[in-house]
Write a structure and sequence with these properties.
This is Putative membrane protein. It comes from Inhella inkyongensis. Keywords: Signal. It is built from two helices and two strands. The longest helix has 28 residues. It has one domain. 40% of the residues lie in helices and 11% in strands. By secondary structure, it is α+β, with helices and mostly antiparallel strands. Strands 1-2 form a two-stranded antiparallel sheet.
Amino acid sequence: MQQNKRLVLAAFGAALSLGLVGAVQAQDKAKEKCFGISKAGQNDCANLSGSHSCAGQSTVDNAPDEWKYVPKGQCKAMKGMSPEEAKAKIKK
């Protein structure tokens, strides 16, 4: 009986994780990374310069190497940069 419960829970967990993975992938397709627009502590993940590797670790507003996900096609309207533009700016 206990083993059956474990199997059911494992199957449920696998199904749940597959659904979440699909939702994240769909969300990523509808969004793009926009550099230079995040406020301090509000970046979405690692920066281009490699000084940190997690979300929420930016220390200044609008740093060119920090990014946030925005709806696809909205980055320019928010005065943000593509990854290529951000890389060029931080090399200067």
